[in-house]
Sequence to fold (412 residues):
Amino acid sequence: MQDDAVAQSDDTGTIEATPVEEAAPAESAKFESLNLEATVQQGVDALGFESCSPIQGQILPYTLAGKDAIGKAQTGTGKTAAFLITIFNDLLSHPIEGERYLGEPRAVIIAPTRELVMQIAADADELGRFTGLQTVTLIGGADYQKQLSKVNRLPVDLIVATPGRLIDFMERRDLALDRVEILVLDEADRMLDMGFIPQVKRIVRATPRKEDRQTLLFSATFTQDIMNLAKQWTFEPVTVEIEPERVATASVDQRVYLVSSRERFPVLLDLLRDPAVESVIIFANRRDQVRRLYEKLRKEGVHCGMLSGEVTQAKRTKTLENFRSGRSKVLVATDVAGRGIHVEGISHVVNYNLPEDPEDYVHRIGRTGRAGAKGVSVSFASEDDAFLLPDIEGLLGHPLACMSPPRVGEGV
Ligand code: AMP
Fold:
């Protein structure tokens, strides 16, 4: 279960942020209620997002009105869409009158790693595909000239970049940031850990003063250092905190089945036949494992869907729709694809493999037992992955009930 709080950060004593408590809309606010620009709403619809995730519901009413924001949120909360929607909507609702010049972006997103930048850019392409806005990605280790030719093809609206490569562009005067209207700093704590703050400071200094731009800063943790930076860089921000999912939700009955590698599949099939399994997500660790499992299940006549990074967004949307509506009751997913799933009424989660990162275990089982309902998680542990159990138990703070799988027909 997601445990959300909207808070003024007075525990750090460093920032005077406006708490958004009183006016915050219900978490499950519909996007329609935000009166987004039509092409932004179209992008949201095409992705199959029905209602706002908690961070979106809490932060968008403010950021869409132009306010600065500091968000404490991890990956998986929907923060990327929150800042992308803010950017697209703002750029469209305040079109530039008069001539545009090359190399003068209107919005900049900085993130610490290439992977994250690419992920954000991919999300921007999806979400922004009806807006006609130009996004360019700048990352180190890739061809500078190619990136430059993209920057110079059309006036660029949004730059998504790692700090180092963005500075290269600034130093060579291929980009000027003095017209930036919105600046997003994502995963600020990781930027700090990775030693990027001097570079980020240079970038921030190259943009208009904080009173003249909108700044959104996201971080998974709010340490004193982060709050000090946030104070320097933002102007009268609202602060929103989305707590990580609670460890070991009491509403999930967690079981570990000790199985041999060969038993996994037959035990899974048996489990799927149990009428108590009304709706189930099966997690596997890698895309290829997800695909193989999906194919095997189809061969056995199990009507199921598959969600992983190798499935096109359009297909993912359709799959999720089928699952949400109950047309298919089985979904096979990777962790990354599975994190975005906010579906009520999932009765079971199966960990076909134990996740390597204990945090993923918590995310996975958090798909069930939501909104006051009871859920069951079944994790298969066999000779090749049982060694991962102690770390998971360490994170949970208690041992897990390990058992032999029930014999065929005995139910779960
Ligand atoms: P993020 O926290 O930005 O990494 O987003 C996690 C996942 O949630 C992504 O796969 C998004 O596509 C998905 N997502 C974001 N907002 C929503 C929403 N309102 N409804 C459903 N899925 C969403």
In short: The two ends are 23 Å apart (CA to CA). The pocket of adenosine monophosphate is lined by residues 49, 52-53, 56, 75-81, 339-340, 342 (CB under 6 Å). The domain at 246-403 is CATH 3.40.50.300 (Rossmann fold). Residues 1-27 have pLDDT under 50 and may be disordered.
